[in-house]
Amino acid sequence: MSEMDDAILKELNTKYGIEVKRVLTIENNEVFNTLLSKLDWFFSRSPLRSYVLYNTSKIATIVETEDGYTLKHHQCITFALSDGSHIRFSPDDSDGIQITRVFVYKDSRRKRVILTFKL
Over the stretch 61-84, which tens digit does the pLDDT of each residue have? Predict the structure, then answer.
């Protein structure tokens, strides 16, 4: 565990009462790396590039499990729409990916978004 992790864990405990039991680093797996490697290629050819932005970053998340809280360090891919709505994918600890965040901007909730384009 790093000094930064120690500082984060102390702050979580003192400010928010969250006691982290485990700290994990989730490495990229084959499925996540395949998705990551295809993004530039896909968006360079897709009409969606005008409507959807994506970025990759390394983040730390707190996950509550039956055993208590876990601090996870992992990479993620976030797809964002122009209204601020977004969805985030991260590698899981097996050979897959998981949705780690979904946010729909308030004014866009309960509305259908239809993208029409010609190939």
Answer: 898 988 899 999 999 999 998 888
Residue 61: how many CB atoms within 10 A of its CB?
A: 15
Are 58 and 75 in contact by the 8 Å Cβ rule? The answer is yes
Domain spans in the chain, listed from the N-terminal domain onward: 3-108
| b/e code 72-91 from CB counts within 10 Å (16+ = b) | bbbbbbbbbbeeebbbbbbb
Tell me the whole-structure pTM to 2 decimals.
0.78
- Give dist(CA 47, CA 6) in Å, integer: 45
CA torsion, ordered 101, 80, 118, 112, to nearest 10 deg: 60
Check residue 105 and give its pLDDT: 84
